[in-house]
Structure formats: structure tokens, C-alpha cells
Amino acid sequence: MLSVGVVVVLAVLLATLVRVFAADIYTVNQVSMEPTLNDGERMLVVKDYPGAHGVQTGDVVVFDGEGSFDPYQGGPSLSRSLERIGHWVGIGSPPGVYVKRVIGSEGDLVVCCDETGHLTVNGEQLIEPYLDYQISPATPASEMSFEARVPAGRMWVMGDNREASVDSRDLLGAPGGGMISQDRIIGRATQVIWPWGERRKLEGDTQ
């Protein structure tokens, strides 16, 4: 009969493997994805992404923003190590982690905006039911106009809270032209799991 200690060790090992390779829980610590995600909520992030489907428009992705949204930090530091430990025990998210919505992936032409105020992807109007306002010429999907062709291995991302989101639009003049490397993806956020009374699947999830 296995001792209690062995059972505990096996349980911890199994939980670690699940969190590293299958799914993990991240805490939202930003307002850029409101109303889809609210500050302080916890979301389930699956790691088998992008997988066979590839990166899809509409997916909500969690990624490491170091080198794009955040400057490179170099080697490990005590504060970063403590933040990562905090994430592992369920307090906050690791440093430099962002959650945004994919608007375009490699090869896509993303344009803002057409005559109705909508974004277009490869000439097709993008319907965005997850925004908290009605898109119109007076209230477009983005106040900033742009046209961007997404190169291979990258993606164009934006927050649902367009007026309070730092995203690909703000990086247009930076190396990479505002595109986030798909190599930086941690996983796809699929649902809110906490608070318990706010559990829900994320609107716009395509898989």
C-alpha cells in the first residue's frame, strides 16, 4: 500500500505535468480585454495551441510580451522569480504576460476601417460581438487607422477594450511592425473559471 507521502508526491507531479503541458490557470491583471475579461478574474489557458488549427482570428491568446510589449529583461531576477512562484501557487500571473484577441495571423491583411467602421481581414468585414459598443462610422472598431500585412510566424492582436488597450496598433513603428511572434504564445484562454459565479466560456472562441 502506497504511503501518504508517495501519494502526495505523485499528485504534485501529475499536477505539474498538467500545468506545464496541458492547461494552466492565469489571473487577469489588466483591463484591456473588458468586457470579455475583467481584472482579477482567473482564466483557463490550454497549452495545445495553435495545434493543427493554427492561430485563428477571434481566439483569445495568452503570450509572453517580453521583447514586444515589454523590453527584454535579460537574465533572471529575484522579483521576477518571486512573481513566477506567486503564479505557481495561484497568486497573480508571471511578469510580462498579456492576454489579447487575435485579429489576423500570418498572411492576413488587416485594415481599419471600412466605411461602416469595421475592421476587415483580407477584405472581409470582421464582426465583433464581444465589443461593448455598436460599431458605426462614428464609433469605429479602432480610432486609429492602419493597414498591416501579417508576416509568417506572427499575429496581429488587439484588446477588446479598444480605448484602454496597448496592442499591435501601438507597436507599428517598432521592430516586427506590431506583430507578435507566435513563438511567444503560452496558450489559448478558453473560459473564466473564477469567481465561481462568473464562470463562462469566452465569447469569440473559435475552437
TrEMBL record:
Domain of life of the source: Bacteria
Catalytic activity: Cleavage of hydrophobic, N-terminal signal or leader sequences from secreted and periplasmic proteins
Location(s) in or outside the cell: Cell membrane; Membrane
Keywords of this entry: Hydrolase, Protease
Any GO CC annotation of this UniProt entry: plasma membrane
Keyword Protease: yes
Enzyme Commission no: 3.4.21.89
Protein name: Signal peptidase I
